[in-house]
Structure formats: C-alpha cells, structure tokens
Known about the structure:
By secondary structure, the protein is an alpha/beta fold. It has one domain: Aldolase class I (TIM Barrel), CATH 3.20.20.70. 40% of the residues lie in helices and 18% in strands. The chain is built from 11 helices and 10 strands. The protein has helices at residues 33-37, 46-56, 77-92, 110-118, 133-139, 145-157, 175-188, 205-211, 219-235, 259-274, 286-294; strands spanning 2-4, 13-18, 63-68, 98-103, 121-129, 161-168, 192-197, 240-243, 278-281, 303-306. The strands form 2 sheets. It has a 7-stranded parallel beta sheet. Strands 1-9-10 form a 3-stranded parallel beta sheet, with no helix packed on it. β9 (278-281), α11 (286-294) and β10 (303-306) form a beta-alpha-beta unit. α7 (175-188) packs parallel to α9. The longest helix has 17 residues, at 219-235. It starts with a strand and ends with a strand.
Amino acid sequence: MTFRGIAPTGRPLIIPVFITHRGCTHRCAFCDQEAIAGAGSLPDAVPGIVEKYIGWSSGDRPVELSFYGGSFTALPVRELSEYLQVGKDLIARKIVGSLRCSTRPDTINTGMAKLLKTSGFAVVELGAQTMSDRLLTEMERGHTADDTRQAVKDLKEAGLSVVLQFMTGYPDETPQDVATTCRALIAARPDAIRIYPFMPLAGTKISQRLQCNEARFDPVAAIDRAADIFLAAQEAGIPTIRIGLPKDGIVVSPYPDNLAQVVVAEALAKLAKRGEREFILPAAWETSVAIARKSGRFPADAKVVYL
C-alpha cells in the first residue's frame, strides 16, 4: 500500500489582525496571547494593517483578512459589529476577498454561523485543543468536546470551512487523550487542522505548576503526539496548515527551530515502523524525509516520489 501525503493547496495571503484576549470569557491555564502576538489591534487600525501587508506581498493570491488571538465570536456586540463592518467594507472595495477568525467552540451556534457567513467569512478556526474532556478540564478551557463537535456541525451547515486547532504535550497528557483526539478528529472531518505543541509561557497557571514540580512536561512526547495527530489527519485526507507557534515574542522554546519538519519526519518514521515502504509526498517534505533517514528509522530502500 502507498502512503500519499497531503499538503495544503491554494493557500491565500492571510493578513492577521490580533484581538489579543478580547472576547475571552476567562484565561485558560496555558494561555498568554500577549506574549505570542502583542497587545492587539482595534477596528480602526485594521485598514492600515491590511494596506501594509498587501504592500509587502507579491503575487496574485486571494487575500483573506483574519482575526486571531481572542474569541472573536464572543466579543461584545458593538465591538463585534465594528470589526464586521470594517471587514465588509474591505470586501466591498475588493481589497480583501474574504474573512477568517479564530474563536472558542462554545461561542458558536446556528445564528452566529449564519452571521459570519453573510458577513463575508469563508473560514472559522476553532480552538479545540483536545477532544479529551479530562484534559479540557485540566486546561481550564471551560468547554467540552461536544461543544467542538456541535460548532463544527453548525459552521459546516452554514457553508463555512472549518479549521481545528489542537495542542499536544500538555502537562500530564496521556496517550489515551491523544487517541481520543485522533478518533474525534477523523469523525469531525474539518477542512484542515493546526497543531500547536504545548509551550510553557511564563506567568501562566500551568507554568507555575511546572516550576513547583506539580506537573510534568516532556517536549519529546509533545513532538511524538503531534506526529500522531498529523498522521490521523493525513490518513483521513485532512491537511495540516501549520505546526507550532510563531517565534515572535517567545524568548526560549523547548523545540527545534524546524519543528514542523521534525514532526513530519517523526510521522514518516512511524509509517515506516508500521511497514510502509512506498510514499508519494509533497516536495516540501523532502527535508523531513532526510531527517527521518538520518535518524535511522526510515529505511534506505523506501521508494519516495515527490510531487
């Protein structure tokens, strides 16, 4: 049997506007968006951000304005309306083609999904993190795996594409938690996923527990489990559009700079261990194949074709 790797296709120019922590009902145990993305931008700053990004970019990719870093659909009504109006104005002026946002699963319902669709949104990213209710409680997420399942259903019925964001390696995560997530991911069938191995950010509740030796974190396990989720998505025909957080604002990382390539290499090594010997892979994975071969866990006689 031949393994066929899936890479994202037709990727737009995504212009990120960060609404750092706004709309969030509470602070999750692992989260510090300001450390990752800064203080965030108000609605009146959005057109200038878009103009700068378009000025820096080249080519004729479709442009997508994205609201990241908070819980977009939980913003106060007036503030949400202001962002929606800015987005609709930019679409009307043909400066951007569509909108995207990230949000909590428990802030989506049929009415909100329809509002996003009619306001020019094409994609909604849900911070699922895990599909293990036990681990969601540990993370202090405040929602359940069923909330994620229902949100995916509501968004898809409204005609929106769905990206699920997952975290691996959270302290005291178990292999069973990851297996639960993999099964649920396959059943939910999002259009794409992101994988964010856990990052111990200073000042968060979980980092304080780690410093007091009340919890354990293993970055090697985080990479291994990211590979498991990556493979589950691949085998279900679901592409992964990003692995790892942006480096900006993160002083020290427990992961290699080429984290995404290492995770893909780990996934390929797992396939080889299962007995797979024929691979049709995206050309962008060539470095990952080299990493896997260097580890000694990807056989020299494996047949690899790049597309």
